[in-house]
Specification:
Blueprint: E1 2-7, E2 13-17, E3 32-36, H1 40-43, E4 47-53, E5 58-60, E6 69-73, H2 77-82, E7 92-96, E8 101-102, E9 108-110, E10 117-119, E11 121-127, E12 143-150, E13 153-154, H3 155-161, H4 165-169, E14 174-181, H5 186-191, E15 194-199, E16 202-208, H6 216-224, E17 234-236, E18 244-245, E19 251-256, E20 260-268
């Protein structure tokens, strides 16, 4: 089931996107959104009789994290190598504020403080209920679904600050979308789903989730051993190798096999 959050210019609504995806991860021409009676994280799946065409709505970030986005650094060995360091012995965690979240089609705003902003295409896990100290073998019990993320990073600030908060925390530095897919489980990603990032139509990242150092159950177990996770919290699972710079005017697409494609353009922050 593909859960979307959308607007027609008023308050956001929720729905279920029907139909198949084409080879580019986009909905088929006959796809429609069936309305839902509220946020399914809190009221469950309650279908309405109202339907919407995609050209009638604007898709938003499919979830606004209630409290936090938890990032995982260097979770692909090749990316750790390109960043000049070893693979961490434990998952390397950092936080992005929920104010960094934007949706499909929204602009990534290039901040004045940086001259080296990078894309990082990633798989994101959306948490479905309050949880703490979750054993890895019970991780599926707390997963609401999966979406696509771009962990945008000001690489020069990351280096000069010696930590990640400012470099990864700017408004618009966490595009999410275009929907949440609920009908998958961690084994689908352990077996391998292709993760690709395109910059102005050219492939710049091409990896597979099978290469994650720590799989999804391990990440949920580790993160929840440190902090309580709330419904709607998001865990970013790391990026494959091939990260690189963005410029104002660029268009960046992140595609994950079976999940769709997240597209954002880069604008100067006003």
């Amino acid at each position: 089931m593909r859960i979307v959050r959308f607007t027609q210019g008023e308050e956001p609504s929720y729905g279920v996107l029907t139909g198949d995806l084409d080879e580019y991860g986009q909905p088929a021409d006959d796809a429609v959104i069936v309305g839902l009676a509220g946020d399914p994280l809190y009221v469950g799946i309650k279908l309405l009789e109202k339907e919407y065409r995609l050209d009638e709505v604007r898709l938003l970030a499919p979830v606004l994290p209630r409290s936090k986005v938890v990032g995982i650094g260097k979770n692909y060995a090749a990316h750790a190598a390109e960043m000049g360091g070893p693979v961490p012995e434990e998952p390397l965690m950092f936080l992005k504020p929920n104010t960094s979240v934007v949706g499909p089609g929204d602009a990534i705003q290039y901040p004045r403080q940086s001259s080296n902003v990078h894309y990082e295409g990633e798989l994101a896990v959306v948490i479905g209920r309050i949880c703490r100290d979750v054993p890895a073998e019970q991780a599926t019990d707390v997963i609401h679904g999966y979406t696509i993320a771009n962990d945008v990073t000001a690489r020069d600030l990351q280096k000069s600050d010696g930590q990640f908060t400012r470099a990864k925390g700017f408004d618009s530095f966490c595009p999410l979308g275009p929907w949440i897919e609920t009908d998958l489980d961690p084994n689908d990603f352990t077996a391998g789903r292709r993760v690709q990032t395109f910059l102005n139509g050219e492939v710049v990242q091409d990896g597979t989730t099978a290469d994650m150092v720590f799989d999804i159950p391990a990440l949920i177990a580790h993160v929840s051993s440190v902090m309580t996770l709330l419904p709607g919290d998001v865990i970013l699972t790391g990026t494959p190798e091939g990260v690189g710079p963005l410029e104002v005017g660029d268009e960046v697409e992140v595609s994950i096999e079976g999940l769709g494609t997240l597209i954002n353009k880069v604008e100067a922050r006003s």
